[in-house]
Amino acid sequence: MKIEKKLILSNIINGTFIILIGLFAFQNLNLVLTKLRFVEIADDLNASFLAMRLSEKNYFLYQDRKALGEIREKVAATTQTLEAEKGDIIPAIGETDLRKLESLLKAYAKTIEPVRGTVPPDAAQEERIRGAGRSLQEYADSITRLERKRVNDIIQDAKRILIFSFWAILASALLIGHFISQKIVRSLRQIEKMTRSISEGNFAQVRDIRSRDELGSVIDAVNHMSEELAHREEQILQSKKLASLGILTAGVAHEITNPLNNISMIAQTYEELYGQLGEEQRISLMQKVDAETERIRKIVKNLLDFSKPKDAQPKEADLNAVIQKTLTLVQNMIDVQNIETIIRLDQGLPRVFIDEHQVQQVLVNLITNAVQAMTAGGRLFIATRRGKDGSSVEVTVKDTGQGIQPGFLPHIFDPFFSTKGEGGTGLGLSVSYGIIRNHRGDIRVESKPGVGTTFTVELPLPANS
After folding, report:
1. CATH number among 3.30.40, 1.10.10, 1.20.120, 3.40.1000, domain 3-178
2. With 50 as the cut, is the pLDDT of residue 423 above it?
């Protein structure tokens, strides 16, 4: 079953429980209000009955003839109250109890009716009146106490049911939520593991999860993507490597020409003026040849180091030295484009724990992109500094080129995304991003069209720095 359907079903179940509990609570609340309304009426009736009994006492003990009139008035008023409040009384105590209460009230009224104020009152008559009044008051008291007890019982029952229902719904929601979340989290962890593996160049597929829900579809899609990437990776990486080497080789070839010309001129001078040169002059010329040869050797060595990727071998290194070494590879490319280079390296920069070759690859890519963005010349800024929090170092590569459109910035590090059209593979910045992330660092970009682009590479310092 799809996760969406499971969530809808669980919501329907919990919603049904909540609606039923709401209806139960509403019904009980109405019942409680009904009975409380009767209790209010009963309290007024009991007060009237008590006043009747008090008037009855005044008549029999003190021969107060006005008391009989007061009793008859109270009986009439109580009868009217019962009739007027019938709509509130019947739902609370039922029609049977109301009829019995009215019957006792009428019986009491009948015992009072024959009495005409004789003094002293008749003893049998007194006993009948007192008995009828006692029965009326006791029955009214018993109904009131019973209804108070019922109100309390309803409240207690509702409380227990609501508490039980609350915990039942909570447990149901937690269990269903836990089941679904565990399924989602388990699959997402596999997808996260897989995507991390893909970002590191490992295209192994997830085979141990078979699911018919949305996560299964996502895993199938990621597996398909992984398979496609595995098929195309070697060809695309080789193409990117050859493109980078082509750019660097063109620059290096031009860079080597200068020392070769110098060596040729020294050799011609040495040959033509050999007889006129002293020993010190001859040694000086040969030292110059050696220096130019060493210059060529370093250029070729840097190119070979760059063109032969090795397994990551992080170690403590001088980041400024890595930058200087990188510049020897790209300097001619910078000069050909008539670009002014501004280098500001923090000489007090701590050593970092990096793979020099991989970081050099990142720098070559960033500088190459900057140079290609300044086709009509410009300024290239390269700077190093300690991070703001002191736990990292930063390398900034800034150009004054054409910049990047705002809509492209969120995708600039995505694989196969390129702003160069057919001229780019879209892997340079993606590979660079992966290298820096593998160093537990970060790479950020800021750009404004027509103003330029700034890349900032942040690398963590060793723990003891």
Report:
1. 1.20.120
2. no
> Measured between alpha carbons, how far is 461 from 465 in angstroms, rounded to an integer?
6
Of 202, 257, 200, nearest to 230 by C-alpha is 202
Strands 339-344 and 378-386 come out as parallel
Q: Report the half-sphere exposure of 154 (CA within 13 A, side-chain side).
A: 20
- pLDDT at residue 311, as a whole number: 54
Q: Where are the domains of the chain?
A: 3-178, 312-465
Res 393: pLDDT = 94
Cα 429 to Cα 431: distance, rounded to the nearest angstrom: 5
Contact (Cβ atoms closer than 8 angstroms) between residue 378 and residue 400? yes
Note the pLDDT tens digit of each residue in 310-356. Answer: 556 788 999 999 999 888 878 878 888 889 999 999 999 999 999 88
Distances (CA, A) of 5 to 45, 211, 346: 59, 14, 59
> Under CATH, what is the fold of the domain 312-465?
Heat Shock Protein 90 (3.30.565)
